[in-house]
Amino acid sequence: MAHDHDHDHDRTVKPMVDEITDFEVLEIALRELCIEKGIFTAEEHRHFTEFAEQIGPTPAARLVAKAWLDPDFRQLALTEPMTASKEVGVDWMEPTGFGTPSDFTAFEILADTPTVHHVIVCALCSCYPRPILGNSPEWYRTPNYRRRLVRWPRQVLAEFGLYLPDDVDVRVQDSNQKHRFMVMPVRPDGTDGWTEDQLAEIVTRDCLIGVALPKAGVTTNVITDTRPALHP
């Protein structure tokens, strides 16, 4: 029986990703060059990658919870945020033991008030306070979010399900290579008498970026109330 070449070709498995981004090409090239030059080994890179993947927003949530309960710690967090970070187990200068030079940076905590709401973005690329918030969510790195938030912040926040009153001033803070930010939201109603552990549970990653507000009983980062992005 003749071999059916066309049939075999039709069954050929296609790659899961047809193309990779410019950032991914740059990362691969830079990583391989650093390994070749002896700056770090492939094993060290794997070790750091595993470390980075397991970082979450827990330290930042703990910091906010402590600030809600302790006025002195709140003042420390706003005036000396790197010192306050150490109180929740994060040393920005040595987060892994072998250093992450891209994170040798200035860090600032933006405190919301009843009339001022902060939200962070990196309009140029995807700068993010990784040592204390972990890896950024995928949507934070997209051009859709980066370009539109600085122009139409209320509309973008509404797409996350966050509708702010007209008398609340929305301030968009643009991160950069050497200056990172996180948001300290206002403590929500219905949390009187709560412990630090209880408060930390409702400070989600999205609250720390500024696209959500903490609410009693809401302890997940999954966005449940969204609507499609629309051009004004």
Automatic annotation (TrEMBL):
Fe(3+) binds at C122, C125, S126, C127. Residues 22-212 form the Nitrile hydratase alpha/Thiocyanate hydrolase gamma domain. GO terms for molecular function: thiocyanate hydrolase activity; transition metal ion binding. Keywords: Hydrolase, Iron, Metal-binding. Its EC number is 3.5.5.8. Belongs to the nitrile hydratase subunit alpha family. This is Thiocyanate hydrolase, gamma subunit. It comes from Mycolicibacterium aurum.
